[in-house]
């Protein structure tokens, strides 16, 4: 008789599902990849086949030119809540993770055992994607990006108000918000709309295609305009969204006296804000904070927790102190992506 959970193996470059000959979020090309979401440290091109939600497949096609008839091989869409039978008798169900559009936890069932790979996730409401769903399992594979007690993300409404207050107090300037191009930028725009901001929001050219993809999937972002198409003075008193890398480069010099802001969970760390010359740090994260990580483990009630890509030691220690079985995985290629 096989040992419990012997059908799944953690490796530095991904989680291997042996009976299905498939990998979860592999960092190198494989024959079959089960992908949780479209960020570059979880998704890549070149696989023989990719199994993911339709939204994640659309994101991968846009970012990495994957999909049917391309170098990405066969694409198999699995909508939320549907179960697909993989080779070797493994059932895979994709469940909302609340991270970005299309992001999923992958529930794998085999030999009477249930394993969930969460990918990246958050527990806060987000108007751009379905919320995280707590799902019981035997093994929970969790991220730990913000796995230290110091990381407690504030309510996003307060961060949006800081942004709107800075705009109102400086009508002759603009506010330039650095935000990751997939997920963070669209969430900031959607939250601004929810806060009542109806004015046009201006985009760096690198943001346009992903914002349009979100709109194609039913996310209302309001009126968006390109900086490249707009005279400088017309952007005074407006919000501009760009990749974090553009905050202090030559591109930003064409803007009208910008107040530099950045939306990231790392803005909790003052040194990070100073390093980037950020005047207005906005603590906005698309990952679970410390309390949400521990609450998720408490609610899922796994027999064992596997911890990966992040502050693994502290979360591992919390599990030990609360009499929970856990192990840290030595994964490679996990980045904070200007989170």
TrEMBL record:
Identification of the protein by name: Endoribonuclease YSH1
Native source organism of the sequence: Alteripontixanthobacter maritimus
Listed GO MF terms: RNA endonuclease activity
InterPro entries: MBL (IPR050698), Metallo-B-lactamas (IPR001279), RibonucZ/Hydroxyglut_hydro (IPR036866), Xnuc_lig_assoc (IPR026360)
Gene3D superfamilies cross-referenced by the UniProt entry: Ribonuclease Z/Hydroxyacylglutathione hydrolase-like (3.60.15.10)
Residue span(s) of domain Metallo-beta-lactamase: 32-175
């Amino acid at each position: 008789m096989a040992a419990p959970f012997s059908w799944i193996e953690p490796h530095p470059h991904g989680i291997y599902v042996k009976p299905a000959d498939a990998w979860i979020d592999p960092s190198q090309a494989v024959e079959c990849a089960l992908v949780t979401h479209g960020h570059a440290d979880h998704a890549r091109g070149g696989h023989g086949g990719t199994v993911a939600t339709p939204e994640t497949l659309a994101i991968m096609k846009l970012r990495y030119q994957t999909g049917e008839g391309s170098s990405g091989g066969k694409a198999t869409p699995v909508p939320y809540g549907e179960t697909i039978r993989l080779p070797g008798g493994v059932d895979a169900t994709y469940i909302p993770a609340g991270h970005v559009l299309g992001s999923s936890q992958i529930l794998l069932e085999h030999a009477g055992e249930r394993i969930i790979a969460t990918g990246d996730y958050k527990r806060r409401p987000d108007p751009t994607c379905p919320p995280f769903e707590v799902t019981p399992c035997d093994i929970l594979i969790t991220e730990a990006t913000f796995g230290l007690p110091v990381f407690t993300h504030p309510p996003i409404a307060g961060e949006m108000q800081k942004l709107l207050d800075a705009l109102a107090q400086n009508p002759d300037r603009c506010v330039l918000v650095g935000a990751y191009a997939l997920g963070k930028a669209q969430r900031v725009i959607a939250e601004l709309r929810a806060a009542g901001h109806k004015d046009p929001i201006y985009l760096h050219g690198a943001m346009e295609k992903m914002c349009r993809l979100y709109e194609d999937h039913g996310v209302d972002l309001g009126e968006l305009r390109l900086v490249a198409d707009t005279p400088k003075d017309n952007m005074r008193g407006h919000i501009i969204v760009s990749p974090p890398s553009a905050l202090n480069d030559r591109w930003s010099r064409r803007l009208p006296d910008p107040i530099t802001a950045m939306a990231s969970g790392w803005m909790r760390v003052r040194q990070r804000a100073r390093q980037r010359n950020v005047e207005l740090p906005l603590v906005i994260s698309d990952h679970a904070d410390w309390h949400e990580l521990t609450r998720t483990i408490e609610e899922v009630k796994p027999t064992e927790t596997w911890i990966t890509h992040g502050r693994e030691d502290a979360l591992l220690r919390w599990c030990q102190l609360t009499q929970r079985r856990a192990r840290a995985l030595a994964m490679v290629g996990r980045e904070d992506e200007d989170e």
